Each structure stands twice: as structure tokens, then as C-alpha cells.
Amino acid sequence: MIVENAIAEAVSPTQRVERLHRRSFLLGSAASLGALGLAGCATSDGLSLAEVSALYGPVPTERFPIPAVDMSKVDPKYYRRTVRYDTREAPGTIVVDPGQYYVYRIEEGGLATRYGANVGRDGFRWSGDAYVGRKSEWATWTPPREMIKRQPEAAKYARGMPGGLDNPLGARTLHLYQNGAYTLYTIYASSDPETIGSGITSGCVGLLSQDMIHLYNRTPVKTKVVVLPA
Predict the structure, then answer these.
(1) Given this model, what pLDDT does residue 44 score?
(2) Are the C-beta atoms of residues 191 and 23 closer than 8 Å to each other?
């Protein structure tokens, strides 16, 4: 099983640096009607513009204030929703469906909270059961030795990249374990809306920062995580 925690390795080093700097310039206000490319007062997925703004607006109370998401870069089918979901898994369980780019939190009554996600790219996907072994807010990111060998420019972060908006792990991280051992896989907060609905990572799963905070606050340590085959 591949055990790398390199985020978005699919892009070149130059593109990655550009993306990190671009995060600081994400829109700081709620997405407008024109930005969403809509006519009327509801999105194509049935959510009102007010609901979208409430879900993905700025979060100024964070240690590193989070800007609003540019929702013009996200397909409406990946907006956070409550949906019907038939499963034998207990409420609270997290189910990752990499083939559909969704993460589900199982709720009572045959329902689930569904989030759009980015997932592992071809050759880095995995499936199976895990659990949340620990949780982190604004975690330090340390590139694995395997990544540093492939991409020497990552060596400057060998002792860790401090938390912040440019940190690949973002505002919140759920660290996944199996049999008492850290897998190096995570569910993390992404500041890159254009990545939702794509396979770009080395097996980790990213949610928009606002969605990740929502999931994180409802997920205790030891929560079961099921990763379905792609």
C-alpha cells in the first residue's frame, strides 16, 4: 500500500508554487450571481445563493482567516448536501467514494451529509477500512522522504512547514490509522476549489476548507472511515 502524504503531486513544482501563492488571493467575499454564472435566485443544484454563501463564505474567526470560496470553480453537484444514503454503516461513519469524488458522513434515518472531494490520482488510490487516529488544526506539513527523493525542492520543508493558508494540509486534518499505525493518508482541507471532483493527490482526500471544518467538528477520534474502491 502506498503511504505517501504528498498533496497534489500531479502538478509540476512551478505550478505548485504558483498555486500556493494563488491561495492568498482567493475571493474574500461571498460568490456573486455573476461569478456563479446563474440567472435567478437558485443554483442548478437547487440551493439558493444565500445558502451557498452561508456554506462557503469567509471564516474570519480562524487563526488564519479563511476567504470565501470562488464557487464558479466548483460544479454545483459537489456542494454540501443532505442526501439519501443506504448503508449498514453506523451513524457517524465516514465513507469515501473516490470514483464519484464524494465523502459521506452517515446520519440517522438513512441520510448522509455529502461533500465534494478531490482524491488520489491513478496509481495512488487505495481502498479499505481505517479510522481517525488523531485530529489536527492548522497542522504542520512534513513531506515524506520518498517525496523529497523525487522532488528535491521539497527538502526545505524536511523539518516541517508551519500551518497557514499556504500549507497543503490547510485548516483541519483527520489522520487515518489502521491497526494502530498511521497510514500517512489524511482527509484534509483544500484551498483549491478547482481540484474538487478530480484525482490529484497521492491517496489523500481533500474537502473545501468550509466543508472540512464542518466534518471535523462532527468527527471524534476513533471514527470509522471506509474508502470504497474507485
Answers:
(1) 53
(2) yes
